[in-house]
Amino acid sequence: MSTHAATAQPSYLVDTGTRKGLVAWLTTTDHKRIGLLYLYSMMTFFFVAVGIGFVMRLVQLTTFQKLITAQTYNALFTVHGVIMIFLFVVPGLPAIFGNFFLPILIGAKDVSFPRLNLASWYFFMAGAILAVLSLFTGGGAPDTGWTFYAPFSLKTGTNVSLAVFAAFILGFSSMLTGINFITTIHRLRAPGMQWFRMPLMCWALYSTAWIQLLATPILAITLALVILERFFGIGIFDPAKGGDPLLYQHLFWIYSHPAVYIMILPAMGAISEILPTFAKRPIFGYKAIAFSSMSIAGVGSLVWAHHMFTSGMSGTALMLFSLLTMIVAVPSAIKVFNWVSTLYKGSIDFQPPLLFALTFIFLFCIGGLTGVMQGALAINVHIHDTYFIVGHFHYVMFGGTGMALFAALLYWFPKMWGKMYSKKAIYLSWFPMFIGFNMLYFGMMILGMMGMPRRYYVHLPQFHTMHVITTVGSWFLILGLLMFFGALLYAIFKGEKAEDNPWGGVTLEWTIPSPPPLENFEEIPTITRGPYHFEQEGK
Amino acid sequence: MSEHAEHAAEHPGYGTFIRIWVILLILTGCLVGVSHLGQTAAVWGLLTLTPLKAGLVFYYFMHLKYEGPLLKIVVLVTLGTLLIFFALLFSDVAFR
Amino acid sequence: MTGHVHRDDFGARLGMWLFLVTEMVLFGGLFIGYSYMRYRYPAEFHHGGSELNATLGIINTLVLLTSSLTVVLAIVAIQRSEKKRAMACLGATLILGLTFLVIKAFEWGAKFHHGLYPNSPHLATLPPGEQVFYGLYFTMTGLHGVHVIVGLAVLGVMLWWVATDRVRQDRYVHLENSGLYWHLVDVIWIFLLPLFYLAA
């Protein structure tokens, strides 16, 4: 292998300072270690929320309703949503892989504000701990759903204030990360790393960071108003005092719809990294993908009210937002077509990351197209707040962002830990995961079409068969997840040593040793060409 | 790249900023005066004089005048986004 | 890590501006809420505005505008290595900021005295539009007040750093960034004045 032989710097995993062990990790300003801190903490929360989802499915096998009351069920779906959205899917890819790889991909030693970066992780953890605390203190776990809709969230006796405050702090963490990434991309690109020589992951992170800056504060102020309402009764969302719950919905979705793009854009970026490496060919339509990231960020911020089609908005707004919603499909489709074209006539090297990347494309297409369906007003009225919605957004969030996160993890795993996992075990885990996923979430979409409303504790007898199928699907899915992460955990401790460039990638992270040295590069590289330059290979 | 434009070689002096401050005081006076002329005049005053004052603070006090294009674009993108949020929200409120 | 010696003043300012972006959007959300409610309750907002003390609002505007000037003058002074003058300017800013808060406290105190505070029994007897007006008034001026307090704390630290030469002619980006924050607080007040005090 053409490694940079005999590097003077130790690996970032080795403690070099005066601090050792856990203390060294908790006080690190190294972007790679912070990325791993995020990874470990997020995966913990992810499995907690998966567990909650598992229990929720069990409740729908009515025999378990003796153990879980309706009130607990309300708390379960709220907490499942809050943890998954705010602690896993929204911050997931940017905080883990953005932190770890953004500086490496643009040829920098670290992000612009390393200490702020560590502070972001502490904000994240503070928010996470508060969210967990809200389950056990005050009037009990919040039961509003993750959307905290007013006026119920203003009136319920459960501990909404703390949960909302937790989301507020998590938003703060997200904004600080966004500030860091934008500044890093503007200021720390290596010499010769022009904008159009950046790997597409960087473009995705850049667009994501902008949405984080421009949308998250709206969530912050909205949640702050909910807290003020609960403590002081300021009345802005309270109809009894002249306030308007619709204003809450507007403000909430002004953030929370763009948040969907905060979740999916970095996932798309990761896929755009993985496909060229395994097709051994430059990405098709580099600029189209880069600009579609920016336009998804732009247009995606203007479609929020499609969550409110049955709320009693004006007809003008209904038509406007329906139109805008359809338009977002265009840049998303541009990406999908470019990915598929990248594979066309490539010399495909079929490896686990590619398998998961293709899974992403498949599941994301289902999620995306059902999204366009819901953009149509008439259909939306029929399926609003049914299991169809739940199935749809799990296809996008889990089938999209989740699978991309797994693909990215598989792709960069050898670089991050310098170990290689068992490919056989990963392939094996894919089958139950894929089958279970589709049983669970496609089943939910069918249930929704049949008329099963979301968030209901009980269901009518005619829905029971489908509920059984989806619940069994959830078991397969969880089995797959356990196998997947079991294989990776095993590899971290007992895996074979990985090569510096196991996949034959050509972006900067594959030019440095695995695991990367403390300051990434012996010498900051000078860039003379685009990111996906495969010389003669596969010709 | 233009974003690498550092501070201009020579910094503006005390005089520039004091002049801007005087203009800001005068504009505040105008705003208060206009608000006594009736509802329409008050709203127009609000819509024109207030952004003008804010613009002066941004442009001079916050040194945007002396920065490269990047920071100006950042501010414009932010204001543009807010304006679009506002317009889309009013597509609901104004036609309900 | 010890390796990072290089300093990127523009990067620092860019980071600060991006932070200000989030502040602008934060208040922007409230301004959007304000216009939503004002559109629904024009008469009530008109009446609510006439209940506020416009004189105090105008005085506070002058106070904040002047404090903005003194911050920017402090930067000019630092650029010219006039340490004493810079400290005097920053000191003046701190005093003006405190003046603003004192006036604000009197204003709020008078409102409370008249039974006008969120959730008060008196407020509940007013028409819904006016309740919302006061809800927004207390939220927006309150949040602004919090920002004034934070700004004063930051500028206090800057005064200390100028005194101890941590901020000096060749290294003053921290002062610049603190100044940016203070100006933004000023800009927000520029908008609050006509929206509330001159709404009548």
Automatic annotation (TrEMBL), chain A:
Cellular localisation: Membrane
Cytochrome oxidase subunit I profile domain mapped to chain residues: 19-528
Membrane-protein topology: Multi-pass membrane protein
Keyword tRNA-binding tagged: no
Example GO biological process: electron transport coupled proton transport
UniProt xrefs under InterPro entries: Cyt_c_oxase-like_su1_dom, Cyt_c_oxase-like_su1_sf, Cyt_C_Oxase_1, Cyt_c_Oxase_su1_BS
Family: Belongs to the heme-copper respiratory oxidase family.
Protein known as: Cbb3-type cytochrome c oxidase subunit I
TrEMBL record, chain B:
Cellular-component GO terms for this entry: plasma membrane
Membrane topology value: Multi-pass membrane protein
Location of this chain's protein in the cell: Cell membrane
Keywords for this protein: Cell membrane, Membrane, Transmembrane, Transmembrane helix
Transmembrane region(s): 16-34, 41-61, 73-95
Chief location of this protein within or outside the cell: membrane
InterPro entries: Caa3_sub_IV (IPR011743), Cyt_c_oxidase_su4_prok (IPR005171)
Domain of life: Bacteria
NCBIfam families tied to this protein: caa3_sub_IV
Protein name (record): Cytochrome C oxidase subunit IV family protein
Species assigned in the record: Candidatus Geothrix skivensis
Automatic annotation (TrEMBL), chain C:
Major localization listed first in the record, in broad terms: membrane
Keywords associated with the record: Membrane, Transmembrane, Transmembrane helix
Location(s) in or outside the cell: Cell membrane; Membrane
Any GO molecular function: cytochrome-c oxidase activity
Listed PROSITE patterns: COX3
Protein name as annotated: Cytochrome c oxidase subunit 3 family protein
A GO-annotated cellular component: plasma membrane
A GO biological process held by the record: aerobic electron transport chain
Record-stated family: Belongs to the cytochrome c oxidase subunit 3 family.
Transmembrane segments: 16-37, 57-78, 85-106, 136-160, 180-199
Annotated ranges, domain Heme-copper oxidase subunit III family profile: 1-200
Top-level division of the source organism's lineage: Bacteria
Keyword Protein transport (UniProt): no
Database matches in PANTHER family: CYTOCHROME C OXIDASE SUBUNIT III, NITRIC OXIDE REDUCTASE SUBUNIT E
Gene3D superfamilies given in the database record: Cytochrome c oxidase, subunit III, four-helix bundle
Protein topology in the membrane: Multi-pass membrane protein
